[in-house]
Structure formats: structure tokens, C-alpha cells
Design goal:
The chain has four domains: 6-95, Orthogonal Bundle (Arc Repressor Mutant, subunit A); 100-143; 156-249; 266-345, Alpha-Beta Plaits. 38% of the residues lie in helices and 25% in strands. The chain is built from eleven helices and 13 strands. The chain has a five-stranded antiparallel β-sheet with strand order 8-7-6-5-9, covered by helices on one side.
Length: 349
């Protein structure tokens, strides 16, 4: 509550117009309209702006609505204000940059994301809530359920900013890569100096696609496990100079052909699968996968993907998938199964 109140000067009326927008954004929606008198009271009580002109609110509500309707180049173009009429008790913010349902999707994505630390997730969600009114925030309290799979690396956003700057400036980066150990904390394992190319979100993780200066090939590494990153003076190596990348790199293929982020050469792989997992096949490999129905129980699938990625995906769907070719991959999986069987034949002490 503001104690000192003075009659509005001409400059204060301009400030009152800004405060009116804030009041409408924060306080109103179709279920919570405000009359002109209620808006005047809030200007007075919340901001210490005493308006004696009784037509001030109505006149400026119309001005704001026209501004939002006729400004195609800014945030205002996505918003709208509904004005008080005889049939409606008050005016309100009728349309916003984001619908509440859209904000809810973004909030759920932030909270479920494994690479955003918990404290940063809460900060981001608080900012997203500011894009709606005060009633929306009370409806997202149930988002904050325990999520023990979140990263603990507080350098995440600094890493993203630094990598983006290095890509834009065409420079190499150096950093430490960390892994979790038995104390469930990150510990340095190796130092890198690489050429950064892309930042890719995949399987709820954030990856850096880089060119290895040592091996001259493409690699992927988790951004949330990077620390001590800095931009180097050396220019990055053009991606076309790396092994297997003379034609560049198809970003979309990373998502659709790599169920896991292995960077070995992609090959044509054929496998049988139970028809019940057709949905999982398309979810994993996308519409580029060639699928042929063999019977009412079986499909034949051909994809181009990493052998390593396919190896672990096939093991994950062990009871529903059988790799047919290449023979080398089939034999590798057979060896995996033999080793697993031996382990389960006898409990290892």
C-alpha cells in the first residue's frame, strides 16, 4: 500500500497508462474482469496514482485495445483486451502471447527435463508464470514433485551461452568432462579441446555435437556434464573436413536415426519386430524407417543408424526385436546375450 498520494500530473497519466496494462495483465482474465472503478482504485491503492478524470480509464482502455489490434510487429499483436459492456461486468486481458495451456506445456517440459538443475527449473517456471496472471500461478503448484534425475551441474546455462558464442564466432572450445561416481557427485574424467557445431536436445538430455581435434570425427557429449569451459583463439575445424562428413551433417537425421547419441558411422540395418512395437519403432526412428508387414504378428524394418545405438536399442526390446543384418551386429548381440546368460546362471560374489 502506497501511503503518499498526489493528484496526477500529465507525466503521471502516462505512467498510469503503463500501470493499467500491468493491472490488466496481472489481475484479469475472462473469469476475473475489472470495472473501470476497480481499475481506478488499484491505480490509487497499489501505485499511489490519484486520477480525478472519471473518463480516464475508459478512454485509455479503448486506446490500448486499438494499440494491440493495430501493431503487427510486436508482442502487442498477440494480445487483446475485451472492454466493459452492458452485458459484461468489467474489462479484461482476453488474449495473451501464450495461452495458459501453452505455458503449462513449457513448464512441464522444463521440470521434466533432466539436464536443467532443480533450482534453475524453479527460476524458469517462475518467469514463465509471469507471462500469465496471478491466478495461473496457483494452478501450477503441483508441478514441483521430486525429480531425482535432474542434473546437479550449475554451469549448464553458462555452458550453453559459451558454446553458442563459440559457434557464432567460429572458435574452438576447451572444457573438462565429468562423470558421476559412487558419491553421486560429478568428478572430472578428461579435458577436451574441440570444435563445436550444434546444440541438440535429445531424449531429455542436451548434447554438444563437436568435431574431435584428435580423431577428426564427429562426437556427442552431454552439456550438463561440462565444467570449466572457455573459448579458445584457434578457429574451429570445418565440419566437411571430418571423417564421414564431406557432405556436411543433416541435423534432422541425428534425432530420427540415433536412439542413443553414438557417433559411429551409420549403416543400413534390418530387423524383425513384433507388430505390437510398431509404434515404438516409429517413435524411435521416425517416418524414414522402412516398415513391411510380414504377418499379423511380425514386421520387417530397415533403418540407417549407428551400430552401437542399434545394439543397445535391440537389447532394450529383446523380447520383441531380432536383428537380421548386418551379420556383425547380429553376432555382437548374440555375444551380449551369452555373457548375460552366464551372469544370470550364477550369482557373482
Amino acid at each position: 500500500m502506497v501511503e503518499k498520494k498526489e493528484h496526477c500530473k500529465e507525466g503521471d497519466k502516462k505512467m498510469a497508462l503503463i500501470r493499467m496494462i500491468q493491472i490488466l495483465e496481472r489481475e484479469t482474465d475472462p473469469d476475473h474482469p475489472l470495472t473501470q472503478q476497480e481499475i481506478l482504485d488499484k491505480l490509487n491503492n497499489d501505485f499511489g496514482l490519484v486520477i480525478n478524470d472519471r473518463k480516464f480509464v475508459g478512454r485509455n482502455l479503448k486506446l490500448l485495445r486499438e494499440l494491440f489490434e493495430n501493431d503487427p510487429y510486436s508482442y502487442n499483436a498477440a494480445c487483446a483486451i475485451s472492454l466493459e459492456t452492458d452485458k459484461r461486468r468489467g474489462s479484461y486481458f482476453d488474449k495473451r502471447l501464450f495461452e495458459n495451456s501453452e505455458l503449462r506445456v513449457l513448464i512441464d517440459a522444463v521440470w521434466s527435463s533432466k539436464y536443467i538443475p532443480e533450482n534453475y527449473s524453479k527460476d524458469l517456471i517462475e518467469k514463465l508464470c509471469l507471462l500469465s496472471n496471478k491466478y495461473f500461478k496457483s494452478n501450477v503448484k503441483n508441478v514441483f514433485v521430486p525429480n531425482r534425475n535432474k542434473s546437479k551441474n550449475k554451469d549448464l546455462f553458462f555452458n550453453i551461452e559459451t558454446i553458442s558464442e563459440a559457434i557464432d564466432s567460429g572458435k574452438q572450445i576447451s572444457f573438462d568432462y565429468n562423470k558421476y561416481q559412487t558419491d553421486k557427485e560429478l568428478h572430472k574424467t578428461v579435458s577436451h579441446k574441440e570444435s563445436p557445431y550444434r546444440l541438440i536436445s535429445h531424449n531429455q538430455r542436451y548434447y554438444l555435437m563437436y568435431g574431435s581435434e584428435k580423431y577428426k570425427n564427429i562426437g556427442f557429449i552431454r552439456v550438463d556434464k561440462i565444467t570449466n569451459i572457455k573459448i579458445e583463439k584457434d578457429p574451429l575445424t570445418p565440419i566437411k573436413k571430418l571423417t564421414g562428413s564431406k557432405d556436411g551433417f543433416d541435423d534432422a537425421s541425428v534425432i530420427s536415426t540415433l536412439p542413443y547419441m553414438y557417433a559411429d558411422k551409420k549403416e543400413s540395418i534390418t530387423f524383425y519386430a513384433s507388430i505390437e512395437v510398431t509404434d515404438d519403432v516409429v517413435d524411435t526412428f521416425g517416418t524414414a524407417a522402412s516398415i513391411k508387414k510380414i504377418s499379423d504378428e511380425k514386421i520387417e524394418v530397415t533403418v540407417r543408424t549407428s551400430l552401437q545405438a542399434m545394439r543397445f536399442w535391440a537389447l532394450q526390446y529383446l523380447n520383441a526385436v531380432e536383428v537380421i543384418s548386418p551379420e556383425s551386429l547380429r553376432n555382437t548381440i548374440k555375444n551380449d546375450l551369452d555373457l548375460a546368460r552366464k551372469k544370470y546362471d550364477t550369482i557373482q560374489g
